[in-house]
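From the thread on structure requests for the teaching lab: each student submitted one protein with a one-line request. Submission from student K.M.:

"Model Glutamine synthetase from Geothrix limicola, tokens only."
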Amino acid sequence: MAKAQAPDTSSISRLDQIKISQYFGCNTFSERTMRERLQKDVYKAYRQALKRGEALSPEVARSVALAMKEWALEQGCTHFTHWFLPMTGATAEKHDAFITWDEPGTVIERFSGSQLIQGEPDASSFPSGGLRATFEARGYTAWDPASPAFLMEGPLGKTLCIPTAFVGYHGEALDHKVPLLRSMGVLSERAKDALKHFGVNAEAVVAQCGPEQEYFAVDLDLAQQRPDLMFANRTLQGAKPPKGQELEDHYFGSIKERVLGFMQEVELECFKLGIPAKTRHNEVAPNQFEIAPIYEAANLASDHNQLLMEILKSVGERHSLAILLHEKPFAGVNGSGKHVNWSLATDEGQNLLEPGQTPEENLQFLYFLSATLKAIHTHGGLLRAAIASAGNDHRLGANEAPPAIMSAFLGAQLNHILDAIEKGDAADASTQRILDLGIGNLPRIEKDATDRNRTSPFAFTGNKFEFRAVGSSQPIALPLTVINAAVAEALEGLNAKLDAEIKSGKEHKAAVMAVVRQAIIETKAIRFEGNGYSDEWKQEAERRGLPHAKDTVAALHIWEGAAAKAVFSKAGILSEGELESRLHIRHEQYQKAIAIETQVLRQMAETQILPSITADLGARANSLAKLAAAGVTVPEPLKAALQAQATLAGEAQVRLAAMKEALLAAEAMEDNHARTEAFGNQVNESKHALREVLDRLEEACDADLWPLPKYWQLLSPLL
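Reply posted by the TA:
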């Protein structure tokens, strides 16, 4: 059988060297490569198992492993690893060489089917939230056949990376991937049941995702001079620069050569790994940028986004750039998000959230739209909890990102249609290009009749929903799992109601419209078209009974609610134990993030900033004393300025002591919830109070004595 003739990727160093389509995915064991290397019956069995969500047979696994090993060795691989996503937020890997003993003193390259399917890394130090004791070291990685293996290029060789799920000895999910895959399976089943009512017999329905990734890039040499950027990924102190984003001249501006070279190398790496990077541009804040991909299956999008974050950082270092993925690296300028665009599609590629060409397709569209609205209405608080973190707390509700209140924006045209369905009116919705529902005089759906609303956390944008509240550093697997679970639950409820309506004797279209109308009425509270930044909306949302978790402390309480537990446990997405473990981990991660920031700020204040201020005070006092000794009258304003600076330095010492006391008090608390509240309130407040004084001291200090790169240096254009 002829083997795939992959291009020599080692010689590709420019985007325009050959067509992207000729080398896209060349560093992955893609389906095209498998189709060319596997026997037809083996490839067919693999595809069927993948579509049905079934385990591969040992025979198929052995054949795939052999083909994968041969391909990897041909590409220059010396090692392989099971690449997985533990609940640290980062990726994990343990590399093994392709060797085993052949005879004494001689090795051969070997890679078995069992090694492909299952690995056994030490799991003792990964977060488990109490699912396992720390002395229980065993964990298992299981191959995810839906995510292609890929090559990691190192300085002296390549490693075959096999995307896997990570579970404990008793099968407990210890990662973000397992719940995501489970939620996709449940959603597929519920969606297939719904489609049968519209004459569509799909083999599978796939949750689709296209995450937009925002990030900052700053000069690496400057970043390495700031302990806060090195250890907390954000600046914990920094006076406002004379120019930030006020002129809005960075947004969509010309991309500077240094940054463009970095972006192009990132895209080159992405294309080799089959990551469909589509868009690059400058974002709003100085030195803030965005990269966005084409849509793909949610689990693959999740893997690719994790890879992308790693690529951004590693390529950035090669270009002497520090890539900051924190949600708020700099105070006073916009933070970074990760807009998770979500939709549903059949295995044949039909987008279920796009109006169709026939009345029946538009009924189907309204049905799935209603299910999504019901999911947001029922579990808006859980969606908020899914994206809660210490970093995202700095961004949400700050008039630069969606508010912490979950609402849905549909646009005037679609809103008008839903209102008309609710009232039973026959008003026409538009005189522009429209799609007819074919039911009496009901209004007709226009494909795209409205502008986008950037203040909406969950906005409908033509054929998808854009979940804009996800933080830039966060893995997207968790919010995707919540969306999938909530929509699956909503579809299950709508399907049951539709069955009952039809059983009662209603004609199909009338039955569908009855169920849709009821959903529209029940979910009206979360539809909002106005300014989500306004105080009026906060008051209106409260009147509507919408949850408003202003920070992680409040959001984690929602995670513990009965509704949250039910949506996961009854569908088999997360057991109560797995759900509880994630709650413990999120409390711990939140506490540790703030504790690290506090300790870094303490060290910066004690060993860098305040000694510099003291030196500046001494130098100024000495200068004034010399003037007086020379018979020069020292103006009172100079004396007053020196006294004001000294008073401010004294206040900094007082606030520093208060911050240290708050940290000690929080760490001494045994109750997990009380500790989280102490970190989120007292520790954070004391940290912010100290920063306020330090920022003022920076503005008064001799520039030659200030020990840290300033905002104006970090945010200067990267020419």
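TA comment: The radius of gyration is 28 Å. The longest helix spans residues 576-629.
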